[in-house]
Amino acid sequence: MKRLFLPMALLMTLACVGGFITRGHWLPMLMPDHVAGGNRPRVQAGVAGLETGDVSADSTSVEPPKLVTSREAGQGARPGALPSTSESAGTSGAAGAQGRPGGGKSAPEKGSASSAQPGGAKPAETKKQEPKRPAPPPAVESEEGKQLNAELDGYFQEASPARLKGFAFDTVEREAALQVAIYIDEARACELTCDRREEHKTHGVIWHFEQLLPEGLQDGEQHRVRAYAFRKDKPGRKELRWSPRDVKPNSFPTGKLEEATPEKGISGYAWDPDETKTAVLVRVKIDGVQIAEVKAGRKNELLAQRKIAPHDACAFMIEWPEVLDDGREHTVQALAVDLATGTEVELPGSPRVIADRGGVANRAPLGAFDICNKVVLAGWAWDEDAPSSPVQVEIWLDDELFTTLSADSKRDGLKWSNVTPDPNHGWVMTTPGVLLDNRTHVIRAFAVNIPAGVKVELQGSPKTYRREENSAPMGSYWYADENRLRGWAADPDLGSEPCDIEIYIDGKLWTRVKADARDNSLVGTGYAPNAEHGFDIVPPDSVRDGKVHDVTIYAVNSPEGPPTNLGTRTIGKNSIIAGFWVQDKLLDTRVEKGLYVTSVSPWFDAYHKDVKVGDVLVEFDGKAAGEGETTAAKFYEWLQTKKKDDVVRFKFWRNGSFYEADIKLGQTIGS
């Protein structure tokens, strides 16, 4: 035994030394909350630009939020491309390695020694398991609590060279002292105090803020202004409702072409927001040729009674032109003339096609001008008369034709929503250098009619534009349940690089990840130069408790500036929708009662049943709409008594005629 003692002692010493040297490999598996060299530090994170007031912190002692990509976060696949079981398992493993110390053991491969049954026995019968859900990204811990300060609320009522105005309030501590941070063109400009108290009949105690002749808005150029409420004694801030607001050196006329009939002539209303007391000129054109010019100064008491216009003397009317009685198809347009610039702006409701009595019809093209920044101008256009052919789009800068291009770029969303029969109807162009001179310009986009006819100004045109130093991120957040958060985000300043998104659950920052998942619907749209700007994130297990949870997602601005709020969705609350949205205020003086259609989504059945903005819902559920028990709010409540895919008959009014439509109801996940 004495002879064996020395060799055994030597072996034990070597084993201890080897164990100490290799502790980094085996210790985390046994003690995941402990790492070699000491305790694992907590990760702290704040939100860029949070007003902390008296709360001070040494920035060198706070680590930045942990960033993971949405791929590392284990995002799911887009519809139609769901991963197989093996792909899901692989993704889950990768996410587990990111989210948990030490990761997890890999499952033995089929045919390996560890998977064989002892003695060659038949494997036990096992139930087929569902694919394992990918793990959520790691949480960003914070000592600051509810960083969105969800108790704050308010409205940004006005932003103009004359003044900034609004109010804010704390829904819990009504007498709390509140401040408002003002950002102009994404840069912090000033801080205002909410110092005038009011007992509001709807919101309770509110606190007003106001600044006259705000510095930074006196140069006659266009600016974007944001307002954030915060408290100096608490961390966190919240962007006010109706923020941001665009301050424009000139607002274009607005109104509506209502009538175009032999009985009532061509009539409507129009006014210029910059000079409401001066009647604007309205030019009436037939097939692109001006046939009349009239002032919109006639009285229509309903304009003031319904608060449609600033006063009742904004109406116009001309007698029915004889040229429209020749039995052929004609296009009638009503264009209001801007008082400051002389620019013609087509009124809503125009153009109006007077049908050919011989049955021949030429439908006007449709489309939109929806992206305008220092990188690209983009939109889409399509003509039903040539459904597979590209429409020519004219781009006008400051009332001069700049270029003509074909709307033949791929936009998958057009096809997926069945707006067009194929996706190749988008248009994209690099923003011309003449727009980048730090002066305000007017940009217009027109679709040329096929095979002939007047050109039509696209929805969203005209736009006033002034080069921004820092482009705000863009994005969409369109789905939320306990298993997935889906959308996309892109920052023009980053080009093809993905931007970061921050996800808040019930007001508290949960994680920060990169929106870098592939989203083919972005290709060719102008929103981003490549497809890798999507996100499809698994939320944490804490939202699967059967309760409702508000999930807000922000696209982080680069290199700095206010983030873009992509929206808030409520997990555990889904809403039945009709696919069209209504308001109580009627913007048409020809109808006495109903709910005015303000928007229609191409992703739902109502769009494809030809419901249009400007129609009036006059009946639903067998009841007349627009009465005490059938207001817009009651309409939305009634929808929640229905089920997804229920088919409901609605009755609408449009331009003096009624029509009915059987519409399949839809659903939003995470309302």
Topology (elements, then pairings):
Layout: H1 2-21, H2 23-30, E1 34-35, E2 38-39, E3 67-69, H3 85-99, E4 152-159, E5 163-170, E6 179-184, E7 187-193, E8 196-200, E9 204-212, E10 223-230, E11 237-239, E12 245-247, E13 254-261, E14 265-271, E15 281-286, E16 289-295, H4 301-305, E17 315-318, E18 330-337, E19 344-346, E20 352-354, E21 366-372, E22 376-382, E23 391-397, E24 400-407, E25 409-410, H5 412-416, E26 424-430, E27 441-447, E28 456-457, E29 463-465, E30 474-480, E31 485-490, E32 500-505, E33 508-514, E34 517-518, E35 532-537, E36 549-555, E37 564-571, E38 575-577, E39 580-583, E40 595-600, H6 605-608, E41 616-620, E42 623-624, H7 632-639, E43 647-654, E44 657-664, E45 666-668
Give a brief rundown of this model.
The chain contains seven helices and 45 strands. By secondary structure, it is mainly beta. The longest helix is centred in the N-terminal third of the chain and has 20 residues, at 2-21.
Describe the fold and architecture.
The chain is mainly beta and 671 residues long. Among the domains are: 2-39, no CATH class; 367-461, Immunoglobulin-like (Sandwich); 576-668, Pdz3 Domain, CATH 2.30.42.10. The chain has seven helices and 45 strands. The strands form eleven sheets. Strands 39, 40, 41, 42, 43 and 44 form a six-stranded antiparallel beta sheet that branches. Strands 3-33-32-36-37 form a five-stranded mixed beta sheet, with no helix packed on it. Strands 6, 7, 10, 11 and 12 form a five-stranded antiparallel beta sheet that branches. A hairpin with a 6-residue loop joins strand 18 and strand 19.
